Amino acid sequence: MGCPEKDCCANNPGNDAISFPGTHGHDTPWKFYNHLIGHVPEDLVVRDYCLGTHWSYVEADCGMGISFTCKGGAKRKHTMDLRGLPLRAVAELAKSWCFEEATLGVAALNAYYAQKPLLDPLGAVYDPPVERSERGSRGGVPPRDAFEQYRPRIEAAGEARGGDGRARVTVIGHFPHVDRIAEYADLTVLERNCTQALDTPDPACEYVLPKSDYTFITGVTIINKTAPRLLDLTKNGTTVMVGPSVVMSPFLFDWGVEMLAGSVVADPDKARFAVQNGAGQFFGEALQMMSITRPGA
User: Fold this and answer.
1) Which residues are paired to 283 by β-bridges?
2) Is the predicted pLDDT of residue 242 greater than 80, yes or no?
3) Measured in Å, how far apart are the chain's first and last C-alpha atoms?
4) Whole-number Å distance between alpha carbons of 189 and 195
5) Backbone torsions φ then ψ of 252, nearest 5 degrees
6) Is the distance from CB of 219 to CB of 247 less than 8 angstroms?
7) Phi (first) and psi of residue 154, to 5 degrees
8) Global pTM value
9) Residue 163: pLDDT above 90?
10) How far is CA 220 from CA 11, 99, 151, 224, in A?
11) Which one, 30, 55, 63, 107, has the greatest CB density within 10 A?
12) Span 3-16, average pLDDT
């Protein structure tokens, strides 16, 4: 699975500030990251960034990118000021085993990829702005929630089995309202820190995903490096990547993803305030949720 281009994962020359030796093999999962990093233009510069408590951002010449702040992993090594560095160099942090560093790397990738001029030609569909009176409506379920968009197809797949057949759905990451899927499908929620009755420890992915009809994968898996393997395991079904941390690159379609349901920064000032202060309306104001779908899907 992965990029059909044999030479798309070449080293990134001239990057002395941040590098991870031994991560440029074509036959390793690092090719997933190297392709995403290697297609970030060399002339873009990081202007600001913040590793926040819950969310983080990187702002560059091309715009701002967001990522969920993932904690843990290895000890942080790259503590230099990232301002003024090439965006591509900072994106290298996506390969770090320190998940705080990898958070900034994924935010750097989204600073480039999550821009409307790149997404609009791909048929991007955007959620409408959320009015204050609408917050909390429908129990907090966004109007274009990816899970709801796929519900008719999931229900139809279950009906096609006849009898009491139900489609098998796996969600990686315990999203809000995910329990409602259990009303119409056989649901498994894979979670690293199990706190809910529906949660199953994520090592079960090797057993569950090959038989899953529909799999929804959090973008945090790009940060913690599990995404390449998870995408290999889901090749027999339909795969959707969900959440603001999803890198909005059509390259992921080559790895079997049918839809990328992520976000773009609608208001950089509000996003900056929300990240730095841990307050403010993040979804619906600072961020605009959106999606792109693989051509022909």
Assistant:
1) 287
2) yes
3) 18
4) 11
5) -65, -20
6) yes
7) -65, -45
8) 0.90
9) no
10) 25, 10, 23, 6
11) 107
12) 51
Residue 287, both tokens: 């961020």
| The pair of three-digit structure tokens given for residue 13, joined into one six-digit string | 């020359």
pLDDT greater at residue 228 or residue 193: 228
Q: What is the CATH number of domain 127-264+288-293?
A: 3.40.50.11590
Per-residue three-class SS string for the chain: CCCCCCCCCCCCCCCCCCCCCCCCCCCCCHHHHHHHHHCCCCCCEEEEEEECCCEEEEEECCEEEEEECCCCECCCCCCCCCCCCEHHHHHHHHHCCEHHHHHHHHHHHHHHHCCHHHHHHHCCEECCCCCHHHCCHHHHCCCCCHHHHHHHHHHHHHHHCCCCCCCEEEEECCCCCHHHHHHCCEEEEEECCCCCCCEEEHHHHHHHHHHCCEEEEECHHHHCCCHHHHHHHCCCCEEEEECCCCCCCHHHHHHCEEEEEEEEECCHHHHHHHHHHCCCCCECCCEEEEEEECCCC
Structure tokens at 50: 């913040």
Structure token digits, residue 257: 């993803």
Q: Token digits for 231?
A: 């995408």
Question: What tokens were used for 66?
Answer: 């967001």
Report the pLDDT value the prediction gives residue 75, as an integer from 0 to 100.
95
What does the block give as tokens for 44? Answer: 């873009």
* 134, pLDDT greater than 50: no
pLDDT of residue 248: 97
Whether the pLDDT of residue 274 is over 60: the answer is: yes
